[in-house]
Design brief:
- The structure is a single chain.
- The chain is an alpha/beta fold.
- About 40% of the residues lie in helices and about 15% in strands.
- The protein has eleven helices and eight strands.
- The radius of gyration is 17 Å and the shape is globular.
- The relative contact order is 0.16.
Length: about 250
């Protein structure tokens, strides 16, 4: 059985003081969670959050990573830098990185390799835009994105990654794929992984990342292919995020 993983993506929110306040309030609410709990924060919050989550079951994640170990890349952070700050997970290829900052399938793959080499667990985002879904391209598109992201990895390495299916049309819009739609597409992603890496596909945890919240988390998480959620807005309030984490309560 795959252990569920609920990860919060704070995006460009929370000062260090606000971050400390949030995770301090969150910790007692999720201490008995049956799933893995991760908060992916802005880099300026790493120190405050890593200190505040000591002794808890909450893990620290980053929102991006560069593919080089060092160099003339102003404003970027390497995997080793993240690791040294207590980061254990890193989001790679989020649709906002693709849309606003020129992320490509090729650079996603480079970042995945860098993360794994440093001992970080990548949360690799894939997903289609509204017009791509309407045109019937969802299945081949997410399969392609997934396999490109994993290119060059061993089956053992693939088994340890997390994939986040995030339909772009459902991010920050209030729209959500139905439980069945999300499950079907995640099943397509898993089948694509199985075609290239065999039984490793059964170990890969695949999240749903399109506006999961306290109201719809239980239904989505009841689906057999869905192993967790990458949570945006609902992760910015301790009570809301805890309700998603404890979706079975």
């Amino acid at each position: 059985m795959r252990k569920a993983i609920i990860a919060g993506n704070w995006k460009m929110n929370k000062t260090p003081a606000e971050a400390k306040e949030l995770v301090t309030a969150l910790a007692p609410l999720v201490k008995d969670a049956e799933c893995d709990v991760v908060v992916c924060t802005p880099a300026v919050d790493f120190a405050a959050v890593s200190e505040a989550i000591k002794g808890t079951n909450i893990k620290l994640g980053a929102e991006n990573v560069h593919w080089k170990e060092s160099g003339a890349f102003t404003g970027e952070l390497s995997a080793d830098m993240l690791k040294a700050c207590g980061v254990e997970y890193v989001i790679i290829g989020h649709s906002e990185r693709r849309q606003y900052f020129g992320e490509t399938d090729a650079t996603v793959n480079q970042r995945v390799h860098a993360a794994i080499k440093a001992g970080l667990i990548p949360i690799i985002c894939v997903g289609e835009k509204k017009e791509e879904r309407e045109a019937g391209y969802t299945n081949p598109l997410v399969s392609y994105q997934t396999l490109i992201a994993l290119t060059g990895l061993t089956a053992e390495q693939v088994a340890g990654v997390v994939i986040a299916y995030e339909p772009v049309w459902a991010i920050g819009t209030g729209l959500t794929a139905t439980d069945e739609q999300a499950n079907e597409t995640i099943g397509v992603i898993r089948a694509a992984i199985r075609s290239a890496y065999g039984d490793a596909a059964d170990k890969v945890r695949i999240q749903y990342g399109g506006s999961m919240n306290p109201k719809n988390a239980k239904g989505l998480m009841a689906q057999p292919e869905i192993d967790g959620g990458l949570i945006g807005g609902a992760s910015l309030k301790a009570e809301d995020f805890s309700k998603v984490v404890k979706y079975n309560a």
